[in-house]
């Protein structure tokens, strides 16, 4: 039984994922960190080759993730872009979409190391509008994250068997 967190950059996947893993005594995997480790290349360097190159590598990791047990995953914000990934995410575990109001995110998201935000966090509004339907259709549960991280951890814990 795994827990898969999806949502736009800065929505709280890593913060909530770490707290949740601790509470459940699960492992925690940040998909971006896993990718960087596996291919020994930074995310900006992968994007410098092309976004397609990054997406290809990102999707390859999902096959590794399906094999894991008792793990909380914080996925990269764009993982739902590639066709077929939504099914792989569901195979990995129960998928939670953390929907944090963009106005909350733009003020505090760290844009360094996030190539899609190199021109500023305002780009998030456009990315969110492009992707929201994909997040909604890829998830088992759609949760609004507009309070503190511990509240989300409680909500997610209640939904898992
Ligand atoms: C991306 C989100 C990032 C990272 C990459 C692309 C995206 O992950 O995978 O910069 O397309 O939204 P986080 O959502 O963990 O920041």
From TrEMBL:
Cofactor note (record): Binds 1 Mg(2+) ion per subunit.
A Pfam family recorded for this sequence: SKI
Cofactor(s) listed: Mg(2+)
Subunit structure: Monomer.
Binding positions (ATP): 10-15, 114
Domain of life: Bacteria
Gene Ontology MF term list: ATP binding; magnesium ion binding; shikimate kinase activity
Catalytic activities: shikimate + ATP = 3-phosphoshikimate + ADP + H(+)
Protein name in UniProt: Shikimate kinase
GO biological process: amino acid biosynthetic process; aromatic amino acid family biosynthetic process; chorismate biosynthetic process
EC identifiers of the protein: 2.7.1.71
Coiled-coil stretches: none
């Amino acid at each position: 039984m795994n827990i898969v967190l999806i949502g736009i950059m800065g929505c709280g996947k890593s913060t909530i994922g770490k707290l949740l893993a601790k509470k459940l005594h699960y492992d925690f995997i940040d998909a971006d960190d896993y990718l960087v480790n596996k291919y020994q290349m930074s995310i900006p360097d992968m994007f410098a080759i092309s976004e397609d190159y990054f997406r290809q590598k990102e999707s390859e990791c999902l096959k590794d993730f399906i094999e894991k047990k008792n793990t909380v995953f914080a996925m990269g914000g764009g993982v739902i872009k590639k066709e077929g990934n939504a099914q792989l995410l569901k195979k990995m575990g129960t998928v939670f979409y953390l929907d944090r109001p963009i106005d909350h995110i733009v003020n505090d998201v760290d844009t360094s190391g996030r190539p899609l935000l190199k021109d500023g966090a305002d780009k998030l509004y456009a990315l969110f509008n492009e992707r929201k339907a994909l997040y909604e259709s890829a998830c088992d549960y759609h949760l609004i994250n507009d309070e503190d991280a511990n509240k989300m951890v409680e909500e997610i814990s209640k939904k898992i068997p």
